[in-house]
Amino acid sequence: MIKCRTRACRPMRGAARPMPIVGRGNNKMIFDLKDATVWDPVIGEGLRTILGNSYFNILKKNADKIRYRDSDSEACNLFCERASREKIRAEVIKVISHHFKEVMVYHACRPKQVYDYYEKGIIPLSPIQVQKQFRDNFSTYVSNEDIDAAIAAVSLDTRDGVVHVVLDDRAFVDSSGHYLIYGSEYQICLSINLPGAPQRMRDILKSFGKATVFVCRLPFSTVTDLEYLVPRMMADHFFRIAHNCDEVSTIDYTVSLSEAISPNAIIRHFCPIRIKDPYKYYAVWNDETMEYE
Question: Hey, is 171 helix, strand or coil?
Answer without folding.
Answer: helix
